[in-house]
Amino acid sequence: MTDRDLIGADWRKSTRSGGGNDCVEVADNLPRIVAVRDTKNRDGGTLIFTRGQWSEFLAGVKDGEFDRA
User: Fold this and answer.
1) For the chain, how many structural domains are there in total?
2) 47 within some domain
3) Is 22 exposed, middle or buried (0-12, 13-18, 19+ CB in 10 A)?
4) What InterPro entries does the entry give (predicted)?
5) Residue 41's closest CA among 19, 17, 25?
6) pLDDT tens digits, the chain, 69 residues: what are they?
7) Does residue 53 lie within any of the structural domains?
8) 8 A C-beta contact, residue 30 and residue 40
9) Are 9 and 27 a contacting pair, CB within 8 Å?
10) N or C, fewer C-beta in 10 Å, the chain?
11) What is 3-68 written as a DSSP string?
């Protein structure tokens, strides 16, 4: 994966972030991948997921799989 693969990425923050900088940004408009980066350090690296991996993660979030007890 290169920076070229991220050309055209439309980065967005969750509406639940409250407009702050302590969150992550997601670009899910890319052809085959979903990219995630830290808002505080946008040049610090990007996590890349397949669309399937991202869908599984979102399903886990919705099902409470990652909720703290």
Assistant:
1) 1
2) yes
3) exposed
4) DUF397
5) 25
6) 666 778 899 999 877 777 677 788 999 999 889 999 998 888 888 999 999 999 999 999 999 999 997
7) yes
8) no
9) yes
10) C
11) GGGGTT---EE-GGGTT-SSSEEEE--SSSEEEEEEGGGTTS--EEEEHHHHHHHHHHHHTTTT--
- Token duo for residue 2: 């290169």
Domain that includes residue 13, residue range:
3-62
Intra-chain end-to-end CA distance of the chain, in Å:
36
Are 15 and 23 in contact by the 8 Å Cβ rule? The answer is no
- State both tokens at 36: 């995630």
Nearest to 42 by CA among 15, 12, 64: 12
Inside any domain, residue 9: yes
Q: Report the C-alpha dihedral over residues 42, 9, 32, 52, rounded to 10 degrees.
A: 60
**Global pTM?**
0.81
Q: Is residue 23 part of a domain?
A: yes
